[in-house]
Amino acid sequence: MSKPYSIGEPNQPWQAHHKQQWLNEQQVKRSYFKDVVSQINALETQLCKEQYGTLNYHNSCYPLYALKSKNWQPNKPTVLVTGGVHGYETSGVHGALSFAQHHVSHYEKTFNIIILPCISPWGYETINRWNPNAIDPNRSFYENSPADESQLAMEYITALNCDILCHVDLHETTDTDNSEFRPALAARDGVQNHNWNIPDGFYLVGHTQTPQPEFQSAIIEKVATVTPIAPADASNQLIGVPVEQFGVINYDGTALGLCMGMTSAPYVTTTEVYPDGASATPQNCIDGQVGAITGALDYLINNH
């Protein structure tokens, strides 16, 4: 367990003034426009850029962009890649962009590809798990979502009216999960905080409704060539969840309102990169995310 969080009272959920206090403490630390939108704009020669919404937060306006195959063909299977649902998880955003820059031209021969590289730009700029309303977008992918980030992404994908074969959602598990984000969550909800053991390496979260163990194994095998795979802890768990196979746990993404549950795709995985490891670098974290996407698509090309 960690020390009590600085906002709120023990065992009492936050009220509006607590959320406002939390929001007042958040600061912009990097630029969505400089880091992300500039790269999206540079990809317009390769992919269609589509604005699927705008987030208006206080004095800030964030356009939301999707990148989509230019040569869209209804007879091709469709793949969805999402990043930055949790804006602080940097390699998810830049892994999606790196895949778009270096690999889309190869894979769009086989697939229609949709990339939502940064679903939560305010979270990216403030290095935050939540949006400004203290809502976690990755627990908000359900009808009438309280998070605009989630609602707008779902509306965009629904409007495309296509069957999605595969969805790869790019995330990180960081040391700040225990130092900041889980304590904040417990304080917000008025419950006792219990930190989890941070896995030392990369792992995947499969969907309990469509676990696809061979698909998950193929991704793990590919990622293992660029970044370490997390071993199970002494209880044969990762983040308190039983390990289903090497490097893989399963969640019911639909019931939990996770991004990976937003479609009915039969092949679904959520990546979890560990950027705080002794051997981790920003580049090999990005490479791990790219390896997960390409590993997933290679598997589908060879087996589907």
TrEMBL record:
<feature type="domain" description="Peptidase M14">
    <location>
        <begin position="21"/>
        <end position="304"/>
    </location>
</feature>
<protein>
    <recommendedName>
        <fullName>Peptidase M14 domain-containing protein</fullName>
    </recommendedName>
</protein>
<dbReference type="Pfam" id="PF00246">
    <property type="entry name" value="Peptidase_M14"/>
</dbReference>
<comment type="similarity">
    <text>Belongs to the peptidase M14 family.</text>
</comment>
<dbReference type="GO" id="GO:0006508">
    <property type="term" value="P:proteolysis"/>
</dbReference>
<dbReference type="InterPro" id="IPR000834">
    <property type="entry name" value="Peptidase_M14"/>
</dbReference>
<dbReference type="GO" id="GO:0008270">
    <property type="term" value="F:zinc ion binding"/>
</dbReference>
<dbReference type="GO" id="GO:0004181">
    <property type="term" value="F:metallocarboxypeptidase activity"/>
</dbReference>
